[in-house]
Amino acid sequence: MSRVGKNPVVVPNGVTITLTEDQISAKGKLGELRLALTSDVTVSHDDNQVVVKPANDSKRARALWGTTRANIANLFAGVSDGFTKKLEITGVGYRAQVQGSKLVLQLGFSHDVEMEIPAGISVVAEKPTLIAISGADKQLVGQFAANARSWRGPEPYKGKGVRYEGEYILRKEGKKK
Q1: 155 and 93 in one domain?
Q2: Which positions ≥6 away from 125 have C-beta within 8 Å?
Q3: Is there a domain that residue 175 lies in?
Q4: pLDDT tens digits for range 3-51
Q5: Where in the numbering of this chain does the Large ribosomal subunit protein uL6 alpha-beta domain appear (predicted)?
Q6: Which DSSP symbol is given to 129?
Q7: Structure pTM?
Q8: Residue 88: which of 131, 48, 44, 119 has the closest Cα?
Q9: Residue 49 is part of which domain span?
Q10: What is the C-alpha to C-alpha distance for residues 157 and 126, in angstroms, rounded to an integer?
Q11: In whole angstroms, how far apart are CA 82 and each of 74, 129, 167?
Q12: Cα→Cα distances 104→73, 117, 125, 129, 155, Å
């Protein structure tokens, strides 16, 4: 039995939902998001709560039960509060800036890395070494942050690179004579 799936999702104030057979959409102050539903789970809306149940007793239905419930909770949290990921840049000469609809990273390459900012996401370079990525879609925010981090991930010897705020990098000792 799913521990996550059996809990109902409370609809926050200011969020209106539309439930059809194959999708659920939520509209709030930060926009509108949709989630496609599978036929393996049934979703019902009862006065300010959304309840997810498996449609049958198959392994796939039980696996998607908690996942669907978590995705619906993220949908509601996204349109009401939004999600934010912060990236820290460490290294001499490493910096970032936002130019129009592009994030420009200087990460020690012979060229600048330009990343197109997708619609629905806002990127702010709070300092030259701190980037805040925010938006309503949790998956989109996390994917953009992971793509930016992948250009120069943190390395364990000097600690240089792009890392998430609060991420701990296990430092290694250098070569000995």
Answers
A1: yes
A2: 96, 97, 98, 103, 131
A3: no
A4: 888 889 999 998 899 988 889 999 999 989 999 999 999 999 988 899 9
A5: 11-82, 91-164
A6: T
A7: 0.89
A8: 131
A9: 9-80
A10: 27
A11: 9, 23, 21
A12: 33, 10, 10, 12, 21
